[in-house]
Structures are given as structure tokens and as C-alpha cells.
Amino acid sequence: MVAFTSGNRRVGLAVLNQPFQRVELAQVLVPHAPPSPRLLKEAAMLVRARRAVLESGDWLSAADIAQLAGFSTRNPSAQPNKWKKQGLIFAIHHNGVDYFPGYGLDSHANFRPLKALSDIIKVFAGHKDGWGMAYWFLGVSSFLGGKRPQDLLASNPERVMAAAQDEIQEIAHGLGRVMPRPRRLPNCTSR
Length: 191
Prior knowledge:
Elements: E1 3-6, E2 9-12, H1 19-29, H2 37-55, E3 59-61, H3 62-69, H4 78-85, E4 92-94, E5 97-101, E6 105-106, E7 112-113, H5 115-124, H6 130-138, H7 149-152, H8 157-172
């Protein structure tokens, strides 16, 4: 008999031949209550955000990094995972695979993590997980003049650090990304 598991219940295909047990099986597989419209909307937003991150083309598997950096292909995840544990780089986990941001690696230093990335990871510690950081780095920032943090990480890490600190201040004040904090304007004199 072929069987599959749903939750904590193991169900055999022979069960499908008995009407009462088919109904019971359907009850196990169907949610207890329909999802709320808000939950469905949030799930759709999450799908769009994750798709945008993955389709950006900025992500490398450990094997990709091993090849670029000239590491052993025998255990390609060893060095990237060590960097991740040390807080030198972050990863997003998708379909059982960790993907690392290519924009966080320095192509002029044999594809080692950029120092600035480690500093930004420290700023986001306790506030954003890997996916949260991926969304932030991909998003256009008014703090950065309409540029994405990932585009300036290597060339202007100080500005990206300031943007990360600003992001954390918004989170700490409960504003998140809903409404940006007002920026102080330079003193102007009127005539």
C-alpha cells in the first residue's frame, strides 16, 4: 500500500475507497478556516517580493562562490557558511539552498565579503533576517537619492551604512517602511 503523511496522520491510498474515510482525509488536508483577505494579500505581497529578489540575478549558491573564488569544489559550502556564521555575509534560504548576495562580494579581492556588508549586518541584527536584508538592499532608497543600497555598497559604503542606520531608527520608532521619517531641511532664510 502506498502511503503519505499529512500532519501527524499517515494515510494509505486504500482509504480513498471508503466514503467515510475520504471525508476524514479531506478534513485533514483542508484548512480549518478560510484564510482572511488580509492574510491572502500579505501572502501575495510576500510572493512578489521574494520573486523580485530571486529574479534580480544577484544571488549565488555556495558552489558558484567556490568556483568564482577558486575554493575546493569538494565541499563548496564550507567557506560561505563560515562567513555567514562569522557575520561577514548573509544568505537567503530558498528551496533547501542558501543563496548569497553577489553584490556583497569584492571581485577585486577574490570574491571575499565586502567589509561594509559585515557592518551593515551588525546594524540589522535582531531587526532583519536574510530575506529582510535582501528586500532592503534591493529596494530603491530615498535616503540614497533613489539608488539601491546594493548598487552603492562597494563604491560608497558610508552612505549605505547611514541608510541602514536610518532604517533601524524608523523600525525602532514603529514607522517601518509605512511612512518615512521627515528629513530635516537646511535652514533657509526668506526675504
